[in-house]
Amino acid sequence: MLKLNQLIKIYENGHQAVKGINLDVKAGEFIVLVGPSGCGKSSILRSIAGLEAITSGSIELDGRRVDPIKPAARDIAMVFQNYALYPHMTVYDNLAYGLKNRGVEKSLIDRKIRRVATTLKIEDYLDRKPAKLSGGQRQRVAMGRAIVRDPKLFLFDEPLSNLDAALRAHMRLEIKKLQRELGVTSVYVTHDQVEAMTLADRIVVLNQGEIEQVGTPSEIYHQP
Ligand code: ADP
Ligand code: ADP
């Protein structure tokens, strides 16, 4: 479904952040990328999303190369740790923005938003601006904005790291539930082992821009 072939990312200063990564992600699979700070997790995610141009290699989605095309045309949604909501827009308009840009019909946008808002329990906040929301509510809106687009692939860059421990535990279960309900394909970056163990079908351990290990949570964390 998602295929990374010999992916290399070298930044302008010459730093090689990703050193020839190969990865195959199956449809419906939840992949978690872990590894020490600076090992290249974000660079990989941002390359897949198209926020960084890759240096060499290729990225395929459903058999089609996406690395040469614009981020908006990749059919990929990304959820960030800092939410990246538009502060001047209401929750409703934040959710609608991407669909409006694609010229989706208003009544269809409205139906999609209501369904996602119910799923994420944000239906009472649709008229509010992000500043009036709690961290957990903002994170739900950020997830809603990704879900409402119905993308082929979800990318999560440490989406829960700004939340307190209780909320993080709660949202972790919610993400797990969404994953089951929607059957989405995801690549999820975290440094939290509990998150990785709870959410992952497969964990990819990175070290200095290379894949060190790939396996199920029990293979990675319960070695003899
Ligand atoms: P992680 O997400 O695992 O913490 P990153 O992908 O953010 O790792 O970074 C990988 C390496 O690339 C780090 O050494 C980081 O300092 C470097 N790096 C990240 N972004 C840039 C950039 N824009 N320019 C130069 N080096 C960068
Ligand atoms: P326009 O882009 O023409 O200004 P609006 O943003 O006013 O259109 O929205 C038009 C429709 O979108 C409304 O009829 C309603 O169905 C839906 N809508 C917009 N904002 C909200 C909201 N805060 N809560 C519920 N529905 C909304």
From TrEMBL:
Q: Indicate the segments forming the ABC transporter domain, all copies.
A: 2-224
Claim: Transport is one of the keywords in the record: yes
Query: What's any one GO cellular component for it?
Result: ATP-binding cassette (ABC) transporter complex, substrate-binding subunit-containing
Keywords attached to this Swiss-Prot or TrEMBL record, sorted alphabetically, are: ATP-binding, Cell inner membrane, Cell membrane, Membrane, Nucleotide-binding, Sugar transport, Translocase, Transport
Does the UniProt entry include the keyword Cell membrane?
Answer: yes
Please give the first and last residues shown and the length of the full protein. 1 to 224 of 360
Single Gene Ontology MF annotation? ABC-type transporter activity
Q: Which GO terms describe its biological process?
A: carbohydrate transport; glycerol-3-phosphate transmembrane transport; glycerophosphodiester transmembrane transport
Q: What is this protein called?
A: Sugar ABC transporter ATPase
